[in-house]
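Amino Acid Chain and Its Fold in Token Form
===========================================
Structure side: the spatial fold of the chain, written down as a series of whole-number tokens.
Position: the record begins directly beneath this header, with no further notes in between.
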Amino acid sequence: MKYSIIVLLAVFVSNAQMKKEQLDLMPWPQNINLTAGTYTLTKKFRVNITGNPDSRLFTGATNFLRRLDSRTGLFLEQAYVNKRNEFPEAELQIHCDRNGKVGLNEEESYQLSVTSNKIAINATTDLGALHGLETLLQLMQNNGSSFYFPATEITDSPRFTWRGLMIDAARHFQPVDVIKRNLDAMASMKMNVFHWHLADDQGWRIEIKKHPKLTELASDGDYYTQEEIKDIVKYADERGIMVVPEIDIPGHASALLSVYPEIGSKKSGSIPYAVGRRSGIYDSALDPTNPKTYQLLGEIFDEVCPLFTSNYFHIGGDENNGKEWNVNPVIQEFKNKNKIANNHELQTYFNMRLIPMLKKHNKRLMGWEEIMTKEMSKDAIIHAWRGGNEGVTPGGALITAAKNGYNTVLSNGYYIDLMLSVDGHYLNDPLPKDIILSPEEKSRILGGEAAMWSELVTPLNIDSRIWPRTAAIAERLWSNDTITDLKSMHKRLKVISSRLEEVGITHIRNKEVILRNIANYQNTEALNDFTNICEPLKNYKRNGGGKKYMMYSPLTLFADACSADASDAYDFNKAVNQYLENKTADNQKIVTDYLKKWIKMNSDLNVLSAKAPLIQPVLILSNDLSSVSKLLLSAITEKKTVNKTVLNDLFEKINKRNSADIELAVYDSLKKLI
């Protein structure tokens, strides 16, 4: 009898109409309507494609089947999708009118319909159909005995055409498998631009056959062959993603100039150029007055441009401090002769020389906001990365660029390497409501791009810095600007974080790899608990202006296992607020259970440290947290008066910089409890 009740309950749950807030979709669709009923999956589930798709849709549909099969364990009978209209009676019907061109302003909308006996995805292009498949995967539910899709009608399209992720492979090289798994994750979040930073002070990462010394002398052996580049571009194209290369010039050029110092701006007799071993801003800069500079760059562009199918080429252009230009008499004479007033105008002269070199390959120049001057071609795309600048329109370079006739992309507020809260990224809108722009000016804001600079990431921990926070940025760039509820975002992001493992992202599993090393292969539970309330120092404080870590320093320490959004800290902060609003026994217990947990955690960490020296740097903070927890626990449960001097001294110690380069994410909420 009890078994029958459970079965009936499962049937009732699967057939009951779901509510939108129960779904874990990200990005959230533009329009979604849940109806009564469900579609239950069986091993006979098949996919059929009609219309005129690109072959990428066959690849995408096959990948969809494999992911669905992996998640459900149904052993689906259909192996591959490689023909049009192969199964006219299939349960999932996908139709697209034409193949899509990967790039900007292409049609990416789709309609998804789920009924009790059929599922249909209709799109103008196969790019839209791929997005529909991702949404369908996110819709899947289970009732304990079977997997099903709730009956749904979805009409969806992106808000912005540029939804990007930049990965810096110059400072710390990121192998092909790292790039590919992140492309898969981008596709799952409906992102469509991969910006690939390939050259900087710390390394030259792309093979140039006419100039093999660039990789022989300036890559430390870590670079992409041209065949690997073409393979990744093809891989991205199959997922609807455009690849935009970046070679940063005229500054950030130490690696290039270590091989070809003759096109540098240093005076003769100066210290030779060398590949950078630290992060930070270097003085190195190409000489914009030397014809050999443009000859070499032209030869580089002639090899690099044909490797990429997109129509965009990023030339960097940021952080050229002009020190080498200022002390070079030849450059100063050139400025005077040509009536060039300052270094900014000289850099514009340099940039304008590059435009025809790129146009030759049908590439449009893009650069960081420093390239924007009154003389810069309106054909250039301005990439905004800093906050509001003195003397420009409120809103910073993005708004200034749009008002001045430039297409522009926002990265300010999306620098994920800063280790800032996901909340700030999520609420950072490329089109803020308080900025008044004409429709034409709004259309010039193409979208935004998460920026993953790699000073403090290796293949081991890079995924944990990109994901899952970039999924929230992807939603900001795709979904309606009214989708801003932080509670909903956090709830859905927790599920999406686990789903990202399905496409190969290692942000969860590699954390344990780091912790096992720190624990000297002892039990990692206490260390893991501590990572869930600690976060790495933010805003580049950890690296001390680029002086603490070398490019070969180990990134296997406790701070590398911590994320920017400590999971228990989020829950504890919520629990403290609930307790202070309503001091019920249940609310009190949630708070005090955390305090007890951290007291025990500290005890366990001290025991572990006897055989694990890498735990030592975190013990001071853990010990102080345990002391605070004991005092607060006594005050809350036993109503004892707390010695506030002692408590404030502990809080002061906790708030100081520690050798582990971490901060306690529950600090503010603990202070509230005083």
Remarks:
- Residues 1-15, 388-394 have pLDDT under 50 and may be disordered.
- The chain has three domains: 2-156, 162-352+412-427+449-509, 519-672.
- Residues 162-352+412-427+449-509 form a domain with the TIM Barrel fold (CATH 3.20.20.80).
- The CA atoms of residues 45 and 91 lie 6 Å apart.
